[in-house]
Structures are given as C-alpha cells and as structure tokens.
Amino acid sequence: MSDYVFRSYGNEKFSDFSSEVRSGEKSDKKTFAVKFIFIVLIAILILEAVIYLFVMPCMSTPKISWTGVESSTVYELNKIAGSALQKTWFKFDQEEICSVLTTVPGIEDVQIEKIFPDKVVIHVTERNPVAVTFVSQNERTVPLQIDKNGVLFQGNVNSLNDSSVLLISGIPVENIPEGMRIPAKFHPLLQQISEIRELNKNYFAAVSEIHVVPKEYGNYELVLYPVNSHTRILTDRALNEDALQYMMIIVDVINAMKKNVEEIDIRYGAFSYRER
User: Each residue of 15-57: pLDDT tens digit?
Assistant: First the structure.
C-alpha cells in the first residue's frame, strides 16, 4: 500500500514537470516566431527603402545641375546635348556628353561628376577672351572673341565692354570658321597679351586697338592706337610690359610738346616720330 502511494505521488510530480517543460517550449517557439516575423518585416522595410531611395532613382532620368555657365544658357546646352541627357543614371555616358559639349566654340573644357543615386553635375569651363576682332558673316560685321590659344568664338557680349579685352585687326580670319584657331604665327602675340592682362596694372585701358601688319617671310609688326590720341605707334612683335610703359612715356612727352604727330616709331629700340 505504501509502495503504491509512493509511486502515485512520484508520477504526479513527474507529470507536472513535463507539463511545465512543454509549456516553456511553446513559449520559446512563440517568442522565436514573433522575433522571426519582426526581423522579416524590418528586412522588407529596408528592402523597400533601398528600392525607393536608390534603385528606382538610378533607373530614372538623373537630376542634372550645371556650373560655370555664363556666356551660354542652360537651355541651349541642354538642347545641344539632346537625348544623351535623357539616359538613366546607370547608362549616363560622361564621355559622350563631354565630346558633344566641347564642340561648342565657347567651351574650353567639360567635367562631369555622377553622384549616387540620381544626380549629375556638369562643370563647364568657358573660354576666356583676351582679344576681339570683327569679321563679315552673311553681309554683316560681327565680333568674334579670341582666347589665349587663338580659338575664335562668340562669347559674352558684356566682355566687349571690358577694357582689358583688346580689339585686334589685321589678322586674316575671314575664312576661319568659329571654333578654329587663327594661324600659329599669331599665337605668341595672344600669349603676350594674356600675360600682360594678368598683371596688376590694366595697361590695355590706354590702348584702343592693335593692328597687325604682315611682313615678308611670315613676320609681322604691330601698330598701336592709344586711347584719346590721334597718334599711332609702330612697334615690333615683342609686346611686353616694358614696351607698353615706354610707349606711354613717349606719348606723354609728345603730348606735352603739343606737336601734331601722326606716327611714333619705337621699333628695334629706336625712337622717331613723323608729323602730319
């Protein structure tokens, strides 16, 4: 009888323990299921965020911004680039855009920066004029600007009022299309003008025009026309700061003498003048 009671009591305790174990297992499974569902939902939200924030923008037309555009307009450049700007961010061809835009005579260089996921920045470097000349086109006389490398282009009309941008005449440019370079023998002159423009003093504010006079064997000389003076100055092709300072001194001396001087010759280090 006692053995029966003991066995019954022991079985009852074992049965209660088993129930607790099964209950704990069910609770762990529920906790695991809740955690798993939560992790899946978070993963789905992250995936959707990646798709909407990164993947979808990359598959659409990028947002394009321009820098350095002054002489042209963004509308004109967009029209020139055409359908190349309508490609998706992934297919956006930087070299193609650069090659198209650099055909514009007034543009010297183009740099393109792609910013993930949907932005493109186009950096434009426009040509800086050092001189301007006039040519005949379609029975009209139009100004064309020249940069330090001798490239002809139509730039910002405001630069025509810049006293540091010289008027140059006498260079044979009638048959040179816009975007092409003037003859190589005149490139040193433009380099000299560019170097003088970089000085602190605006020497060219005192000069209204430089006329190029071709000579034999491909050489040339220069005729400078000072501002507010009827006297022209003949000089050689070595145009520099010293030559301009010397020219100004001579003009001041002549004006002080109140002579009716038509021409001053300072070529080859000599000085002479001729009256009218």
Answer: 555 565 556 666 667 777 778 788 888 888 887 767 666 666 6
35 Cβ contact list (under 8 Å, min separation 6): none
Q: Which of 122, 121, 125, 187 is nearest to 152 (CA)?
A: 187
In the structure encoding, which two tokens stand for residue 233, read together?
């100055």
| Segments in 115-238 forming alpha helices (H) | 187-197
Query: Other C-beta atoms within 10 Å of 195: how many?
Result: 14
Query: 243, 248, 245: which is closest to 270 by C-alpha?
Result: 243
**Residue 120, phi-psi category: left (phi > 0), alpha (psi -120 to 50), beta (remainder):** beta
Stretch among 13-22, 175-184, 252-261 having the lowest mean pLDDT = 13-22
Reference 64, options 124, 19, 13; nearest CA is 124
| pLDDT tens readout for residues 120-153 | 999 999 999 999 998 877 778 888 999 999 999 9
What values do phi and psi take at 91, rounded to 5? -95, 0
117 preceded by cis ω (within 30°)?
yes
**Residue owning tokens 């009671």:** 5
User: In a 10 Å sphere around its CB, with 0-12 CB exposed, 13-18 middle and 19+ buried, how is residue 128 labelled?
Assistant: middle
Q: How far, rounded to the nearest angstrom, does the alpha carbon of residue 64 sit from its chain's CA centroid?
A: 15
Q: In the block, which residue shows the tokens 């947002």?
A: 63
**pLDDT at site 57:** 67
pLDDT classification of 179: cutoffs 50, 70, 90: confident
Q: What is the mean pLDDT of the chain?
A: 83
Q: What is the DSSP letter of 149?
A: T
Largest Cα separation within the chain, whole Å, is: 155
